[in-house]
Structure formats: C-alpha cells, structure tokens
Write a structure and sequence with these properties.
The structure is a homotetramer of 308-residue chains. Chain A is of the alpha/beta class. Chain A is 29% helix and 28% strand. In chain A, α3 (123-133) runs parallel beside α8 (270-293) and α7 packs across α8 (270-293). Chains in contact: A-B, A-C, A-D, B-C, B-D, C-D.
Chain lengths: 308, 308, 308, 308
C-alpha cells in the first residue's frame, strides 16, 4: 500500500469551498427565497388555504409544485416564495388549519448534514466529495464511514473526516450498532450509501427512517444476487442502468428517486458493463442527492414524489 | 364493427375510431375533469385569487401547474378540476379580476380540429393517421393537404379527406393563398406540418399565428440548408435528433415544444441517419401534438412552457 | 397512381410498395452487394481463410463484422461484399474448410417472408404494416393471424391477409396447433409477436426455433405477471422500457435483440405509462425486426450478437 | 518539472494509484493482447493480406474492427491479437506491402502521456484526476496547465503537477507559445482541453495536430458565442448536450469522438442548464479520452471513426 498523504488525522479546518469558475450556481432565483413544504390528507380548497396564509404573512409565491396521490388521498405541495414575516407562526397556523395528519415545515436546502457510508468502490464517493468541495450539494458531507480502510486516503484528500468500522468477527446487528454509534457524533440529516456493500438491519433503517439514500445497479431486466454485471452479460442485455432510492426494510425495495441507463452491446464484457455502470451510478446518486437536499422529494408509501 | 370507409375519391363518412385493445386511454383521472387555462402579468396573490374563484364556483382542484416567466414577468397556470357550476361566469369573473392583458379560457382537450400539411414523405403522416384512427390524438384530423399527390392513397386508406394543391407555376404567395383557401372549409384549430417541404410566407403564418406546429430534423450541431443528413454524415455526428416547434416567421425559429435524439455512429451512412431520424421525427411530432391538444403548452415569447 | 388494393375478404394481389418520398432507402452502398454469414468454432486463421475464399471467387469485401464468444469459443462473421462468381461453390468450399459444426450461408436480406401474430392492441401491428407498405422492412408481411377479430379492419386496409384463429374453448396446445396450421400456407421465415397475448407452447417454439421475435414491456426493475404498468406505477419507477427478443421456451427469456427506454415521473398514471410504453415498444420491435431481416443478428446461447 | 505545490500541509510523494475495489478493470480479455492499427487506401484483399502477415508471425486474432470510408476511399483496421513474434518486423512487412500512403503501428494503450489544459471550471478536470488516480484512463496525466491559478489546489490534491501560465498582457500567439514551452517538459502524447477557455492559434494546433481533444457544450440547436446556456434558455430548448472532438483549426470544428445529451424543461433556468450540462460534459470527455487512449479512434478528414 502506498504511503497515505499526510491528510488523515491532522486537525482539519472547516472545509471552505474552493474558488472556481463558474461559482457555485444556485437554482435561480437567488437564495433570498424560502421553501414551504406541506403534505396532508387531500381535500377541497387546500391550495387556496395555503396560499392565503402565505399572503397573510406577506410572502410572494415564486413557484408552486403540487401533487395529489389519489390512491393515498394525500396532497403534497412545495412552495418557493420570497419575502414574508413571522414564518414560524405561519407554519403553526397551517398546522392547525390543515386536515390531519399534516406535515408542515420550512425547507432547509443548503443546511443539511450528510454522512456517507462506503466500502471499497471509489467512484460514487469521489463524485460526492468533489461536489462537496465546491459547495454543489446543497448540503455538507460531515463524515465518511466505511467497513474497510481503503477509501480513507481519498476521503481525507478532500478534508472530510473518515472513520473505519470493520465488521470482521461481528454479527450484522453488532456492526450496524457500531456504525450507528459512529454516526451519532456527526448528527447527520441524511445517510448516503455510496456503494456500501452491507445490508442494513431493521434497527438501523428504523433509526434513520426515510433518510437513507442508496444507489443500486439495476438492469433491464433487473438482476439480483451476486455478480449482477456478469448476469447482465450472460443475458445479453442492451441497456444497463442504475437506481437511486430510499432504503426501507430490505436494501433495494424503497421509493425510487432517480434512474438512468446507458446502452451496451455484445462487445461489452462484464468489466465493460461494470465500467459503464459506474458512470451512471455516480451521476444518478448525485442527482438524487441534490433533489433530496433541495427539498424536492416527498415520500408517499412506496413512491417518491419528485418536484424537479 | 363500423362499416369500412370506402377507399379514395368516394365521399367519406365521419371517421369512427376503431375498436381496439386497450381502448383509447384518457389521462387519469377520467374525462369528468375540466381545465382552466390562465396567463397574465405576474403579481402577488394570483394563485390565491384563481383558486378562490374556482372554490366559489364549487370546483375541486385535481392538479395545478404554474410557472412564472421572470423575464417577461408573466404568470401561467393550468388547473385541472372536477365539479363546478357556472364556469363561463367564473371565466368572466377571472378576466375582470386579473391584471391585464390576461388570457383566461376553459380547455377544449379532445375537441380540437386539425389539418395536416404534407408533401411526399409518409412517416409522420402515417403516424398521425394511425393515432387519429384510434382516437389517441385528443383531436381529430379533418383533412390532409399536400402540394404533391403521392400521399393521397395512404390518407384515404384511413378515411381522411385529402386535397392536393400543386404549386407548379405559382409564386409562393399564390400557393400559400391556395392552401389557405383549401383549409378554410375544415376550420382547423391547429395546422400540423408533417414534413411539408415548403416555407410558409408571413401572411400564412399570421393567419394561424401560434397555431402551426412543425417537425424539424435538427442535429447536434444543427444543420441548415439542403441535405441535412448528408451534412450530418460528413460532420461525423454521433447523435441526430428532431425538434417539434411552433412556426413563427421563418420556418425553424419558433418556440420548441419537444425534442428527442438517437445515437448513430460512423457505420451509419446518410441513408441510415435519415431512417433513424424518421423514427425520431414521427414520435416527437406526435408527442408535441398530444401536449398541444391536451392544453399543456403555453407560449411565452420565444419559449414554450410545457406542463407535462 | 397504383391501383388501390381491394379491402377485406377479397383476394389480395401482391402488395406493391407505394411511391413516396424519400424512396425506400437501402443501406448504403446500393443493393449490388451480397452478404456472407458464418459461424463456427473459434480457432486461428479463420478471417484469413474466409477472406481468402472470397478473394478466390473475385469478391471484394465492403465491410466485415466479426465477434468471438469466448465462453462458447465460437466465431461469428458477417461480410458484405461486391462482385464474385460461383458463390454457391464458395459457400460449399467454406463449409468443407471450416471447423465443425459450422453454419455458412448467403444473406437473403430483402427476401424474407414474415407472419405477424397479434391480439387486440394495434400499435405494433400498425407500425409494421406502414413500414411494409413502403418497403422498409427488408422483408414482406405475408399474413396477420390473431386470436381475436378486432385488428382485421386495420390489417386489410393495408392489403395484407388477415386470419382469425379464436382460442375459445380450446386447450393451449390445440390453439397453437391451429395457428401453426394457419401459418403453413404463408411459409414464413420469421414469426413476429406484435403484442400477441398468448404464451406459445414448446411445440410451437420448437417448430420455429430461433425464428420467433417478441416484444416485451419490460421495466426498471422488471415486472412480471398481470398489469405491468400498474405495478410500475405503484413502484414509482422513473423509467419504463421495452425489450425485443427471440422466443425460446418461456415467452420472455430468449436472446435480446434491442431495448429502449423512456423517462416517466410521478405525474404519469398507469395509463400514461402504458401510452409512453407503446411508443417505445413499436419502435424497438421495428428496429429489431430490421436488424434480423438485414441478417445482422446471430444467436449464441442466451445472447444475441447484433452487428449494427 | 515544476515543484509540487504544498498540499494541505505535507510534501506530496509521487502519486501511486490507490488500491480500491473493484481494481482497475481492463477491457476483457486481459492485457496479454496487443493491438495492430492500420489505415491505408482501400483496395481488394486488404483484410486477407493483413491477417496473413499476422498469422505468419504466429499471432491469433481476438477481434477485428474494420471500416472503409467510401468517400475518401480509405481503409481502417484495428486488430486485437494474442501471441506473435517479431511484431516490429511484421509492421515493417505490412508497411511495405500495403498501398501507400499507409499508417501501420502497434497500439500503446495504457502508455499514453496526457497534459490537461484548464482555466477555472473544475468539473472536467476533477473527473479526469479521479480516474487518473485509480488508473482508469489507459493513460497518465503528467501535468495540468492553466491560464488561471484557481485549479492548483484541486490538482495538487491528486498529486499531479500544476503550472500556471497567465495570459495577462500577452498576445494570443505569445501565450500559446508560453503554453507550448511549458508542455515540452512533459512530452505529452495527447493534450486534453478540459474547459480551457482560450482559442488555440494555428501554430499550437499544428504542433499537436490530431492530438488535441476538446469538450464543447453544444446544444440542439447548437449555440455559438458567449453565454451558450443563456442562449439555450432563451430559445427554450428541451435537450442540452456536449461534444468531445479533436481540435483542428478553429476551436469547435474538428472530428467528433463522442456526444451525449440530457433533457431539460422550462423550469430550468440558465444556471440549471449549466449544471446539467457540466455532468454531461465531464462524462463525455472522459469517455472520448478513454476511446482515444484505447486506440479506438481513427481520423478520416472531418470524421472520427470510433471502433467502440
């Protein structure tokens, strides 16, 4: 193993996004807007009610996104607005006025804290670390935790704390517990599984319910089990893809946030398919993470509503 | 089973969509919803105002789409709602209350009348005729008009009136005029240029302003002039595409409604590229036409707002 | 103008491709080239041997495609050439010289006879009928056979014989047998399942082994069983797709020839997904059929080698 | 060689590709194969001749790719083979036997030396640096040279030499000359323009003719001049893209190696389009660079032949 550049374990100053060109580009309009996020049982007059409360507080709506899940009979709304006074009071007012159970909150885009879990593959982690370095995530990566030490050098090159939590000789439950302990110090809002090759147990999933994002190498047709790219090759697929989804019980069954694909052909062996797959995986994971951190994603049962 | 429409030159009965499986599928929810379409200068409280008027008339909003063009300072809204009484009065009420100049109307999805202009290429026309036959357009094709007779057989197989308006020996203005005369009888809401190989003059465009949809074989990078696929081949492009857009003055400069692309490689000669291009062209044109006929498209200067 | 083929139930004359613009476009170079198709156990010197025999017979190679399946240790080659004398003798010479078992034949692109099986959905059938009408398939549709009468009108509009073989009250085996009987008269080289909603039994598949092409609505992740688009909706997928494949035992497990996808989002209900899926299905099926009829597809176990 | 800027606090050792999982994955089959690359005027019997010489030298062909540019009447061939003795002699033998002018060489995949030119945007450079760190380029980045100092920190984090060559107060010719001088020490085989915002003059282009790869933000339709993403927004395009191409005289007119696109809609402002564009740019540039460094790209006039 090469000597690790001096990064690790030195006291790291707070990371400052590097100057670059173009400067980190906010979604237009500029950051002076705020977000109101609402979901509640559907019913008549909800948009009128919500926009009325916002108007009462002097807020000007910039853009609304709404959706009604007709099966769940549930209403979802993301409102970007400028101006407004007494917004916490507005939130309380809405909580009282909307059908129950209702979730009402102001968006925190830009302020989310992330922890990344990884194992040995570097491509997704590196993608996130570069974006974090330049302030492009709408969130900050507070730590990388791995069951394997090999990504420490990469992580610390980017000034992000790395913690190895080896799983050797541990039960899954005990290892999950150790990772949860390690996470505690970083108080993450979201956990990102960047090719973390362990299946999380129910206790872990419950602890961060609706807050764990995973990237899965899924195909047309989907392959499960070991060596998915070899299976894809043997089946002769012409397209491979990747899926970013929230983790529920079971690693690969939660609500899908983003998917993308890339064409392959018979000349592509399993290694070529894996390489093409890695490019898709990292872009899809980064996109899904951006959507989540910009408060664009709501969960409705097994589906993710994505206001893109 | 309906009687089979007689072939060419006989008097055509009204076309009856053929029974098929699956039946023509409406966008969910079912047809009992209506559409309200609004655009006006932007300002505070518009959503609250509009939803208030709808609520006053007993309408329940199913889904809203809104957009503000910040450069034009103009607000666009498409509201799908169920129920409601006195809707014409609601429209009048809104017209009076909104900032001026405002456009307010109820959608007519499903009731639009189309005329198709074509020349000699059949792929786009055939695509539209099949969809028309099965009631999938959200509109009806009332006539096909061409400057060349070769598509008559195809058109009349589908029971649609065909009219040839040859251009030989005519000035562009005179030919445009003759086509306008032929169109008059069919009272079309929209004109679809399905590979119509003539450039429309300003008088024609003005007569159907904002109501002419064209399909253009555009590339990466875009090619103009004669033999675009040969140019694309000689430039060695790896992707070709198509663009459906509204016609303004100049055939290929109006607001873009839909675009799509397909990969090609060095093995593809100009004829292969043209063949691949045709598949993209017809799907993109049909998609754009559906979006327009479902009242999902607003024009804002050089841009099309598409609530898909 | 050509005489219009008589409508249903009359005796059909040979279909004549309609004049159109652009004329049916052959893959460049023009039709004066021929194809040599070889597959045999891999070994040293095969390309040298084959090109030597072609040169001996005065043939000039225009383009070669080669592939070695390293797992099956099998060599595949498609050679397009111009000129050459005594080609049947060249084929015999190669058969004698190549490692056994070897398949050697001259391509028949343009001369293949097709039979289409369909049920009630029209979109794939209409796509194939339009392309057949204009001579774009590199093959001719000799008949459409269906277990349901509803597509007869569409089929006969295009001058293609239609035969209904109802399955009511029949076992699968008996119905398969009846369809096989009906097919016999048309001597098809390939069978195309254009949304044929019956599972073919082993006897049928064996009768046309490696010669049955199917279109399957497959998704990311793949869904099986009833109502696939409803399942896709409930799973909240962001991409849907389609797969054209050869039929082996079991309807959806054979070698994949072509796949494509289209993005969807949470606004798309099951009916929207089905509509988007239909556009992909028909284009993918038509593409796969073209590849097969241009002699570009070889089968190697569970994989299709596609020289595109 | 320039001194390595002090990274965060430590002196940087020579960079050694980091251990990771999966290990850098060669295209199958493994590295024991070699490449023969030939282009020459087209004529009869070329494949037979070339495969004969290889066979004479005991080489077993693994895979051939061939192409004939019919307009230029030129033949291109890439042969991957195993075994073989006296390969330099085989190359000489082929040079003597082929029609002139012929280029014949053995591939150097894995051994190419790269220099990257950048300005202030980090996304393409970071993508290449990560791949370089893990040995995924089939080449090594020897240096990054920029007309601006801001990317020094990023570059040196990855242990790659960085050299600033400011252009202030210099003519384009003088600055080009200074960059050429700086490049000399690194003896690059290829120059990669990773968002280098300067137009190279004819002398520079001539010095590295056919060896400069650029990434261009091209659109549907293509936009030129300043602020391309703003132009794209104002035109209301639904797709944006990127093009990797060789540089000839004029920055954006050389042979295209790879292109890709991403959909956008009316909700995407210029900054959103730029962000989406950056993801496409970096993946397309990295793909094109891999194709070049795997000896898969031949130039034929204004076109790139890509044996992928």
């Amino acid at each position: 193993m090469p000597s690790i550049p001096a990064m690790p374990n030195s006291s790291m100053p707070t990371i400052v996004p590097l100057p670059s060109e173009p400067a980190p580009q906010p979604t237009e309009p500029a950051g002076s807007t705020r977000l109101l996020l609402v979901d509640c049982p559907d019913g008549p007059g909800l948009v009128h009610l919500i926009t009325g409360v916002l108007a009462h507080h002097g807020a000007n709506i910039v853009i609304n996104h709404e959706y009604v899940d007709r099966h769940a009979v549930r209403f979802f709304m993301r409102t970007e607005f400028s101006g407004g006074d007494g917004l916490d009071e507005a939130v309380e007012r809405l909580r009282a006025a909307l059908p129950q159970p209702a979730n009402v909150r102001l968006g925190r885009s830009g302020a989310y804290r992330l922890a990344v879990l990884a194992t040995r593959e570097h491509h997704c982690l590196a993608e996130l670390l570069v974006r974090n370095l330049y302030g492009e995530l709408g969130a900050s990566i507070e730590a990388v935790i791995s069951n394997h030490p090999s990504l420490e050098t990469l992580t610390t090159r980017f000034g992000v704390p790395f913690q190895a939590v080896p799983h050797d000789g541990m039960t899954r439950e005990a290892h999950d517990e150790a990772v949860l302990d390690a996470l505690e110090a970083f108080a993450p809002d979201y956990i990102v599984l960047a090719k973390y090759m362990r299946v999380l147990g129910p206790a872990f999933v419950k602890r961060y319910e609706g807050r764990i994002l995973n990237i899965h190498h899924s195909f047309l047709p989907a392959f499960v089990g070991a060596n998915p790219y070899r299976q894809a090759f043997e089946r002769g697929v012409k397209i491979i893809g990747a899926t970013a989804h929230f983790v529920t019980e079971g690693l690969d069954a939660g609500p899908i946030v983003a998917q993308a694909v890339v064409p392959v052909d018979h000349n592509d062996g399993p290694a070529d398919m894996a390489r093409a797959g890695r490019d898709v995986e990292k872009i899809v994971l980064a996109k899904a993470l951006r959507l989540v951190c910009e408060d664009r994603v709501f969960l409705s049962g097994s589906r993710a509503i994505v206001f893109d």
